[in-house]
């Protein structure tokens, strides 16, 4: 079986089409290959829950409180989701997280994984630096372009 390579630019374009046309999902097939891009749905219970704050360092809390999700995605050290899926901070249940706040990382180092269509995709640090914020919880659904963590 040939290895399936993900064209992240193509996935980004599909995600933009979803957003621009307010669609719930797009599914394409080419032979044996299939790709499905879906926007997560928000249930009333999830919408009513306060945003998690345990992963935000105390020193960064005032700045984060004033920032919106869009602002964080524009941060030069933002590690952004290249796809819709479920983000995992550890390689498998019971194992330590890839990184923690305060850890030094190198450019290209895997900092988390995103499961999309039953495929685990490594998400790498865009640059060397220190992880200053982790903006998601383990096993959290994420959207395309969403800021997942900050590396400064």
Question: What this model shows, in words?
Answer:
There is one protein chain. The chain is α+β, with helices and mostly antiparallel strands and 152 residues long. It has a single domain (8-151), classed as OB fold (Dihydrolipoamide Acetyltransferase, E2P) (Beta Barrel). The chain is 20% helix and 32% strand. It is built from four helices and ten strands. The chain has helices at residues 8-20, 44-48, 61-66, 69-74, and strands spanning 25-30, 33-38, 78-80, 85-88, 104-105, 110-116, 119-124, 129-134, 140-142, 147-151. Strands 3-10-8-5 form a four-stranded antiparallel β-sheet. It has a four-stranded antiparallel β-sheet with strand order 7-6-4-9, with no helix packed on it. Strands 1-2 form a two-stranded antiparallel ribbon. The longest helix has 13 residues, at 8-20. The termini are far apart.
| Total discrete domains | 1
Share of helix among residues? 10-25%
Q: Kindly report how far apart the N and C termini lie.
A: 40 Å
Largest beta sheet: strand ordering: 3-10-8-5
Number of helices: 4
CATH topology: OB fold (Dihydrolipoamide Acetyltransferase, E2P)
> Can you tell me the CATH superfamily?
RNA polymerase II/Efflux pump adaptor protein, barrel-sandwich hybrid domain
The total beta strand count reads 10
- SSE run: HEEHHHEEEEEEEE
Low-confidence stretches: 42-66
Query: Mind telling me the C-alpha Rg?
Result: 16 Å
* Average of per-residue pLDDT values: 76
Shape designation:
globular
CATH architecture: Beta Barrel
- The chain-level structural class is alpha+beta
Biggest sheet layout: 4 strands, antiparallel
Text of the CATH class: Mainly Beta
């Amino acid at each position: 079986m040939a290895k399936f390579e993900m064209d992240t630019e193509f996935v980004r374009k599909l995600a933009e089409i979803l957003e621009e046309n307010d669609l719930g999902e797009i599914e394409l097939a080419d032979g044996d290959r299939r790709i499905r891009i879906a926007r997560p749905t928000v249930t009333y219970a999830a919408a009513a829950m306060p945003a998690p704050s345990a992963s935000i360092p105390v020193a960064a809390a005032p700045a984060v409180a004033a920032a919106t999700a869009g602002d964080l995605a524009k941060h030069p050290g933002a590690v952004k989701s290249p796809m819709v899926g479920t983000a995992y901070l550890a390689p498998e249940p019971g194992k330590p997280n890839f990184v923690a706040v305060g850890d030094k990382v190198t450019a290209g180092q895997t900092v988390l994984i995103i499961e999309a269509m039953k495929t685990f995709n490594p998400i790498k640090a865009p640059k060397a630096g220190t992880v200053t914020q982790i903006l998601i919880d383990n096993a959290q659904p994420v959207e395309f372009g969403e800021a997942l963590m900050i590396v400064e």
